[in-house]
Request: fold
Amino acid sequence: MTSYTSPLTRSVLPQTESQSSVIAPLGTITDLWKQQSPYNRKALKTGIVHFGPGRFFRGHLARIIHHYLAQKRFQDQRWGICGVSLRSRRTMMALEPQNFLYSLIERHHSDENHESAELIGSINEIVDGTQEQEYVLDLMTSPAVHLVTLTVTQAGYCLDKDFNLDTANETIARDLGNPFTPTTAIGFIVEALRRRRDRGMAPFTTLSCDNLPRNGEIMQRAVLTYAEQVDPQLAAYIRNQATFPNTVVDRIVPQEDESDYDYPCRLLQVRDRSPIVTEPFWQFVVEDNFSGDRPSWEDTGVIMTNDITPFLYMKSRFLNAVHSFVACLAVRAGIEYVHETVRLPEFHLFTQLLMDDIAAATPVPRSMCEEYRSQVLVRLSNEAMPDTIERVSAETSRKLGKYIVPILQDAYRQNVNIKRLILPVAAWMLAVRESAIEAGLPYHAKDKPNVLATTQSGAALSQITGLESCKCTEVIDRECNQALRDLRAHGLSTTLKYYSEEMLQNEFASAA
Reply:
């Protein structure tokens, strides 16, 4: 990843007691920008319309565009952002008094401590799309706009359980009845593309930045379904002319905390009405499939690719699945935070070996796996971004089906031993069955009532996850039952140690 430091970036090392006692008078964000601006915002043209200018967008895409603009300076100032809010005016109201500038703080506390702060200036404005429909549509049909991007969460796409557009959704049905005055992101995109077609303009590229698998394909399918209802010829035009690249987005941007407001005061000596606090790591992988111009943002660390598949595998398996594996173990152990769990020696070693098994079962070059997985444990151990086990373990049954079962199935096909891959799942099942952690304290799982009832009844893992009976599920259920016996007989800590030492596994299993 290319590194770039803005003139407004300040890295902070631990202060001495005498240094920390000196309190500088607080200034304004706008004044600080005027003093040290890395580019001229007055000359910044709007080339991107973004739906959903929330915290993740401001910690991820807006930051990437900011660094691109700062690096290019006077060479390419076409990529300013207009944010469009369709649900809440909160971000717009907070940022408008400070000219849509805000501070972004990166923090990592573990074996090495890091803090840095910078001002982000890539957002030209944020508007309320429900109140300024024509303004937004005029902007989307401007020749200067080449990208329409989104971080509206899964709910903002109005999808059904199969990730298809729900045409019975109240807001979608309303837009279909009034397509020239849309209120949804899908409605805005289709109407703007219709206007561009009618004016003989090239379509913009629609870029989903939400955490959905093959998000571009989901976006395209939803747009085409909507357009077919409005005008089949318009749908054909969109299908043939417009592009919807898939992306992989990755960065932990927690919900707002009261302490967030202290960082710009301490690190930049300014007040900020809406700071963003996040981790140092970020990743943005984009399929290079654009219908028009785009920033050459690979210069700032964005990965452009013709095949998104390996990156989807790496994120879902080495981040999402490992996150759930760790949470399953921590539930049984009664540990409160993710970073506390992965720092314990037996958990740390077991997780490393677990990732060896995942790598062996995953159809991705080993070198790519190694680079990504080495970052995962560092990220999960970051106590500056505390993540509760209660949050991560919620809806474990859904995550089993989405992230973990595919790994088990691939491991079976690749003849990879699944003992370690099964153990965390068994630890979670045991906690649910007993409604207690290992120490005997009560545990109340947050999951679907029918899943909890099935698990508490003693059902096999294949029944809980709805897997069809086959040789693979027989192996999965057999290994899961063995792991449950091991956990009951020896406890979690000892079982982790033995499952981490392959030479002792057979002896351990026969003694259970």
